[in-house]
Amino acid sequence: MVHYKLTYFAFNGLGENCRQLFALANVDFEDDRVEVEDWPKVKPTTPFGQMPILEVEGKRIPQSKAIARYLARKFGFAGQTELEQAEVDAWGDQISDYIMETIFYFRYKTGFASGDPEAEFKNVVIPARERFFPIVVKQLKENGSGYLIGNKVTWADLYLNNHVETFMNFDAGYLDKYPEILAHLKKVRDIPALKKWIEKRPKHKY
């Protein structure tokens, strides 16, 4: 039996997509959560000086999207055809671009970096949302299944879901203009295996 160990900070962040893929597949894994104060000791031991890291069969895989793609292919959440897999990868990369554009809001809000979160929200987050979310809505309408690609949840759905859930923890009205994305959030989170995971996981705002 394959032993999986996923190492990431003791909050949701970029590691949560990977944890949720294990939950969806009903596959056991070692959920190694690193406290922020322990990170300076752990960092030099990591391949790229960052987390998450997946350990499997003696190999260590860094980078959150690489891990998500590997697990999604392994467990059947990467797209059901080669074309769908390419589309899912494209959406995953696009969502990542959007997240990286907005990430300093969270860093300022949580004290990981010094800055004005309210100014960042107004000047960076809202413009990024207004550019990207209409594209998401268009895709959801055109696909018609409630998911981004195909008729089954993929790692790209999880990626989008976890990001907007985190923003809603800080701003409950973040999706008020985008009911289609709110419906997507609910559809994904109502998947029984994922709902069970969300109910039992440690509670964090981010």
UniProtKB/TrEMBL annotation:
Keywords tagged on the record: Transferase
GO cellular component, one term: cytoplasm
InterPro entries: Glutathione-S-Trfase_C-like (IPR010987), Glutathione-S-Trfase_C_sf (IPR036282), Glutathione_S-Trfase (IPR040079), Glutathione_S-Trfase_N (IPR004045), GST_C (IPR004046), GST_superfamily (IPR050213), Thioredoxin-like_sf (IPR036249)
Domain of life: Eukaryota
Start and end residues of each GST C-terminal domain: 81-206
CDD domains: GST_C_Sigma_like, GST_N_Sigma_like
EC number, as in UniProt: 2.5.1.18
EC category name: transferase
GO biological process per UniProt: glutathione metabolic process
PROSITE patterns tied to this protein: GST_CTER, GST_NTER
Catalytic activity: RX + glutathione = an S-substituted glutathione + a halide anion + H(+)
Gene3D superfamilies per record: 1.20.1050.10, Glutaredoxin (3.40.30.10)
Single GO term (MF): glutathione transferase activity
Positions of the GST N-terminal domain: 2-79
PANTHER family named in the record: GLUTATHIONE S-TRANSFERASE, GST C-TERMINAL DOMAIN-CONTAINING PROTEIN-RELATED
UniProt similarity note: Belongs to the GST superfamily. Sigma family.
Protein name: glutathione transferase
Biological source species: Mesorhabditis spiculigera
